[in-house]
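Here comes my example:
=====
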Amino acid sequence: MILPSNDWVRRLRRHMEIGTGRTREALPVFNRRLATGAGAVLLGLAALAFAKLGDLAQARFRAIEAAWPWAALILTPLVFAGVVHIMRRRFPESRGSGIPQVIAASRDPVRAAHGPLVSLRTAGAKTAMTLAMLLVGGSVGREGPTVQLSAAIMVAVHRFLRVPITAGVLIAGGAAGVAAAFNTPLAGVAFAIEELASAYEQRVTLLVMAAVMISGLVSLGIAGDYVYFGAMGQTLSLRAMLLVTPLAGIAGGLTGGLFSRIVLAFAAPTRGWIKVVRARPVLFAGLCGLVVAVLGLASHGMTWGTGYQPTRALVEGHGQSLWFGPMKFVAALATTLSGAPGGVFAPSLSVGAGVGNLLAALFPGDPAGAIVELGMIAYFTGVVRAPLTAVIIISETTASRGLIIPLFAAALIADMVSALICRERLYHGLAKPFLPPAQPPVAEGEADRDLQAPVA
């Protein structure tokens, strides 16, 4: 019997050790990919369920309003006050949009993963309370809450699989939430660049794109290839483009910047009268609910809810009352100032459509739907200060690729005008209360050192 030489045994052992090391190195990578894929599937399903429940809640409210036309005067203020009362006592991290919470959590992802900002408990409560707001006509959107819900699901899956939580995990979850909510994958990636991350690291690219792609496929497979606000194939002549685009950008930037400035002033009150108003938050929320109810009755229900139906009608060229835009602006502002959970994405697009509707009246010979879209993108950019995200959302949700150049121009003009009205970006300003005292405020353009996410 020939025994192997000592040299051969040493080489065999070395190869075995190398193979074992490679297996150990490959296992964390596999777990990260598994967590990203599983989280994206789950959040895609959650976003679709949330959207369906939101539509049912709005339909139910319209049925109640049809049976008892004046019920909103009692029901809406009571639910506004009740939601804010429960939120302040039990789930304070669920207030408002949800996007500021994800921004704040990405600053310290390890701590946030074990805290309430992106926990399933907070996200579940936020979802339920947003549905309650829609059930009584609150002018809220579900996109911001979907971002917080998606980030919470992604964190929960990573914790379950014992994968380290990085800022990239939170950013990928939030971006996938936007993609699933609007059925707009490109908008999810753009939103990650412009809003959720103050600097976009190369290592986050695959994580974000993988999560967005998977959640988008889930949404596409279940809900189909739908266009959110309907298809709009109209275009503008060069003359109309040169006249309407800057006007829309200025109007949207002014009104959107005003909205952001008022909201930020109420979030961090510095004036005495604002402190007095905010001293009784539940009563103030009830008064905000009363304003929303009165505006809804005065507009025959047009200002209630997300505003999806009147916005789609305007995009498709069906005119609405010129009062729709101003009334929806006040309804969205009152709902946001109440402090109740709910997003501003959909209401902002609806208010922007109202702004475009006003502009369309000044240019009766030009396509109304195209002008409405310019108003939508200008006002939305004025509020959130994310022009690239705005362009992609509008172009994807309306299939209006023929308006790309005027949409970009209106967005850039609105961004510059809004910055003159309100220097601080809305979501970054609202994220400050969620940051730990020792943390510096979220600075626009500051490089985020935490975005060292491993490659998925």
Summary: Residues 20-25, 444-456 have pLDDT under 50 and may be disordered. The chain has two domains: 34-223, 238-427. The chain is about 70% helix and 0% strand.
